[in-house]
Prior knowledge:
The protein is an alpha/beta fold. It has 14 helices and ten strands. It has helices at about 5-50, 65-80, 90-100, 110-115, 125-140, 160-165, 170-180, 190, 195-205, 220-225, 265-270, 275-285, 290-300, 305-315; strands spanning about 55-60, 85-90, 105-110, 145, 155-160, 185, 210-215, 230-235, 245-250, 260-265. Helix 2 (about 65-80) packs across helix 14. The radius of gyration is 31 Å and the shape is globular.
Amino acid sequence: MDILNKPYLSALRRMKTAKLAVLCATIFTLVALSMSLVACESADDERTQTDTAPVQVGSKDFTENLILGELYALVLEDKGIPVQRRLGLASAVVHEALISGDVDLYPEYTGTGLLTVLRLPLETDPQKVFDTVQREYAEQFDVTWLEMAPANNSQGIVVTREASERYNITTISDFQREAHNLRFASQGEFDVREDALPLLREIYGPIDFKSSAIFDNALKYEVLRSGQADAAPAYTTEGQLVDPDFVLLEDDKQAWPPYNIAPIIRTEVLELHPEIASVLNALSAGLTSEKMTELNAQVDVEGREFTDVAREYFDSVRDDIQPSP
């Protein structure tokens, strides 16, 4: 047989071409599979790094928010979630820090979210305020409001026990009625801010004091205790309010919006750690205005460190803070 005849050579070439095509296809498949595995490994590595990155827990720079920020950090660490603390940020920058990703979670107030951040009209119904900020933050910032605590750190009026009993003052309506008998310790800004004394006059009627003088906010309780004044503006969870010599008046006509405390968290972080919602909601459920006042007093009146106060409270409620099954 003549192996050099043309038909045989053509067949041989076709066989070689077919084998080469199969070989190339096999190599291509192996390369593609290898690249796919590398990509998957890379994606897995990236996910692992994200999952294990510490949650940046922030807070504002005043006593109550520092206590809350430390509590949030302790709760997360107890559940095995790595945490990095960024406590004590200026109130003016903490929201931007959250949006930029420099902070993942911090304690906020419903009234602040409504009026200061979203710049929406004043609303006094606590649930309506919460529903509004929860919806708008999710839509505008991709941030989730977890459940709000009963604690409400709103504006208020405090009077001395002596003035309360002498003039029968327990509400702001009583305060308006007896204002002509009262010496008011103002902080200046309270007299002119739209949501302060002008709002009270709009809701409650004319408020004309026997006298009014401006004192530094940090000194107001000493001013009241020393008998230099009978009444002053206050925030409703200030630690000094544990003193029985002071009476916080009821805002009986609901002039001021609620400032309920709630953890707010970047939604993408919550999706990585969904258990955060359960444990922080359980923590918030026990934080009443009375409890926050007591915790604040341990720092501002007794002089304890906020970290120690937060740790002691956390240890007392630790068994009650469990993730949902």
